[in-house]
Amino acid sequence: MDVQGQAALVTGGASGLGYGTAKALIAAGAKVALIDLPGPKLDEAAAALGALACPADVTDAAGLEAAVAKAADAHGVARLLVACAGIAPAARAVGREGPMALDAFGKVISVNLIGTFNAVRLAAAGMLSLDPLADNERGVIITTASVAAFEGQIGQAAYAASKGGVAAMTLPLAREFAPKGVRVMTIAPGIFGTPMLAAMPQAVQESLAASVPFPSRLGTPEDYAALVLSICRQTMLNGSTIRLDGAIRMNAK
User: Fold this and answer.
1) Is residue 181 in a domain?
2) Catalytic residue (choose from 105, 159, 177, 192)
């Protein structure tokens, strides 16, 4: 699918992977709606990019539905969804103060897995109603997992479970939407220089970058965005998770 002139939704679009993806999509001619939590960060990101700000919490069914409707009113029904919204807190199942709070585990699952599915179900409903393009494609859905889905470290039980769920639902969703020409793909980033990582000490960041076999650096939002565009253009990519990780395999800790 050529994104030129097409409407796109990007969740988590106010920062990190989402912001980088929105920037690349706009440069390629797409009409982008940023979906993120309401606040100055979203407004500033939308203004900087020339995108539409659609505030919503991805875990809120009615709120996200309203955001998707706002985007459709402004740009038309989206043919592309890139779901980047997520959180990555670390906590052991049993720490020094006892068992991990169940609500803490549930929050990670809610944002990363249920929030992703919430965006997928709403975006897909719109795509399935559209007329097909010349190649019979109606839309593309790209979700975000993590290498932690496959090699979760100690303290990442909740995060790994949430991202494993995102990867696991890719194929059944692709199979469901295939008859209508909507593709579903997932990207599993490795160690990326996102705002979450930027909060770590510089020495830690450098050590993590050096642990990547090649290229020995942190991944960037631009790397992620380039793969998004490649997936859009390559129609045979469907129902799979692509690792974007420089060949890293995570150790236990």
Assistant:
1) yes
2) 159
